[in-house]
DNA sequence: GTTGATTCAAGTCA
DNA sequence: CTGACTTGAATCAA
């Protein structure tokens, strides 16, 4: 029923949807590669997308369209820099460009008006156009480095990276996903050797060295492809997607040209969350300048008006937009911290304050630009709900699962009057046609207490190809044809890390009414990439008793080959000298299992399809050994901010199914049918 | 489980 | 080109 309703047309997304799915962005032609093979430098193939990239500035004045709106702007249609800026500002980055490494040349070095290839600083200064503000448009002008995206390293195509990007969002997601995959794999290897070598920094270093990054070069204003509400768990993530360059420092700044003058201005700050005063006012932020603490000695001294502090001071006068990343203590994250991109702010005032150590420090009050959708505010709201579910208003059912799930699954309808989904019987389990005892048994390990990575005697580790599939934090490292969790036959305890999905749901979900796709599923908690989400519960359909009338059943799960984004979720092994685990659509082998959640099921039956999903399915075994009928478990494809609709790829039309439906996912890479 | 001290760090600017 | 500058993340002890 609900999936059937997905085909009603409708132009708008949910108000709370964190992703603006529609955009007017031009499609980039698939980039070509150029192989520059130098003996002294690693052979590199660089691909450069051709096309206009957004200025970054201006998004604040187009709140109705979200960050992508500016992307459609051409060189002559820039918007004023935000509603509150009456003063013409003309800014040109001066020291914004990383010097191109020797041996690496972008393919397209032509000089488009507002898109510049990377050149050396001296070259750039020499040819900086003097007429940037000549059109009197009151607009803000930038020259931006042309982003370089690579999917080749050492002359080899990296299977885990897309061959082309049609939007900055895709590029950012691919870079971010690659970072996370590398980080998980390094963590897995470190844990195998029982050492800690900062997998985040290691993954970041590989990304930097391979130049797999987005938005290289600095810019004032939005970072294309990074959306308000996007969440991060490591500072390096901000670095490689070009949101905030310093890997440690809190203030990112650059030198920019303002009319006839030149100034250093702040472009992004990370507010570590140490100064959270007013909980309800998420639109203002008091930020402290940096410095004053000597790392070596215990000495403290007054902060100086230089570097980042000076840039903030200049930004106060220049009134330029500053990206703000807010850090919060996240009780659910192991490191205890989560970073949320909260959009653009402007500095209102600055002052000096004497700290408790008796030193002078600079303070800056920042005001969030109006008209932007909520970022950190959503997180604060959902954190309250998690602590006390009754603070969640407009609930039409308090617990769809009637207590069957760890946490209540509420139902909300904020768009129309439908009182809830049609009747079904709630179950958290998948029901097999035959009893488990009659199915093939799963072999077990003899580990005492818990299985440990690197234990060559652990049969379960061997069964999974040598490594335990989950990190100590319970995050899946890599997609595989099947994951073997520890089960009944194992000697290890329930605390074993190789029992992630069988322990069930650990997040707070809600079923909500979408504007045009029936009911959907979203989560109050931020979910990190690789985290377990839920099982597809329902009845396993016995293929010996084929139900010919299942065309009426919109709740059937089948292992249809998903799109590229799902298939490429792996560890990026080529980057660290490991063999590719990529399975192409040609090689993809569907399983015979079919699960129907029409009569019985859990909340996963409300998860909608998207061609650009944030969730993927993964076969998992733990209570039987019939590899053709595994459990279907869902995991997060990337970090998912709270209240973002959860979607997975139902699969490519024509591959193993004769039913197809018009897709309303709105993704730019939408295949049209599923 | 939570908190504080301790240690080792990456990228960028000057 | 090198060092100074910035503080995060992980671990271990209390």
Automatic annotation (TrEMBL):
Its main location: nucleus. SMART domains: PreSET, SET, SRA. It is found in: Chromosome; Nucleus. Keywords: Chromatin regulator, Chromosome, Nucleus. Residues 100-137 are annotated as: Disordered. The keyword Cell cycle does not apply. Pfam families: Pre-SET (PF05033), SAD_SRA (PF02182), SET (PF00856). Residues 221-368 form the YDG domain. Residues 507-651 form the SET domain. Residues 443-504 form the Pre-SET domain. GO terms for cellular component: chromosome; nucleus. The keyword NADP does not apply. It comes from the Eukaryota. GO terms for molecular function: double-stranded DNA binding; histone methyltransferase activity; zinc ion binding. This is Histone-lysine N-methyltransferase.
